[in-house]
Amino acid sequence: xxxxxxxxxxxxxxxxxxGLGFLFSVLNVFLRDVSCFLSIGLMIWFWLTxxxxxxxxxxxxxxxxxxxxxxxxxxxxYQKALFKGEFLSFSDIFIIxxxxxxxxxxxxxxxxxxxxxxxxxx
Length: 122
Description:
By secondary structure, the protein is mainly alpha-helical. The chain has 6 helices and no strands. The longest helix is centred in the N-terminal third of the chain and has 28 residues, at 3-30. The relative contact order is 0.19. The mean pLDDT is 91.
């Protein structure tokens, strides 16, 4: 019963990550140090995402840091579907859909805008 919901979350997560991939691949061609900073940034991003701890463990003044993180909403959706057996609310689906589309459209448009410069640079 939760399999279609997990498939939807997975596809939206893939769309989000594709947008980030477009963005950082272009930035890496022009700024070679992006790959070094990206590995450090991803490690910090990992610990700011509530993967191994529920977001309820954070006190209220510090919870905004996790809620500002777009990956938090995907992780919470996975946790609701897999561990709690709950369906996502319409607002949960809308938030991850919005984040996914924003990331993909932004990353892809940046890639298309810089495509000619990429071909010259490579």
